[in-house]
Amino acid sequence: MVSSFQSHASVAREVLRIAPGSIHGRALLAGALARRGSTAEARRLGGQIAGLDPGFSSARHAEALPYATGLSSRTSSTICA
Predict the structure, then answer these.
(1) What is residue 58's predicted lDDT score, i.e. its pLDDT?
(2) What domain count does the chain have?
(3) How confident is the model at residue 80 (pLDDT cuts 50, 70, 90)?
């Protein structure tokens, strides 16, 4: 059985394959990686996001998602630390 985090990471990687500059794809992948414990890779992606959009806010990003209810603040702080 594929975990939801693996599924999210797969979707995010597909988004990045189609749209390599996607901040949303990077944020989704970083969140999935952080939740599975791959914090170094999640932080690396967070750095890429900051480079693409210096004003990026994980809170603003989460609010824009249609499924944002219940997102963990722990994940956001891990990515953007």
Answers:
(1) 79
(2) 1
(3) low
Residue 16's domain spans which residues? 4-80
Q: Which long-range contacts (CB under 8 A, 24 or more apart) does 22-27 make?
A: 23/49, 23/52, 23/53, 23/56, 23/61, 24/61, 26/52, 27/58, 27/61, 27/79
What is the domain-level CATH number for residue 24?
1.25.40
Residue holding tokens 């797969």? 10
Categorize the per-residue pLDDT at 51 as very low, low, confident or very high, splitting at 50, 70 and 90. Answer: very high
Read off the pTM: 0.71
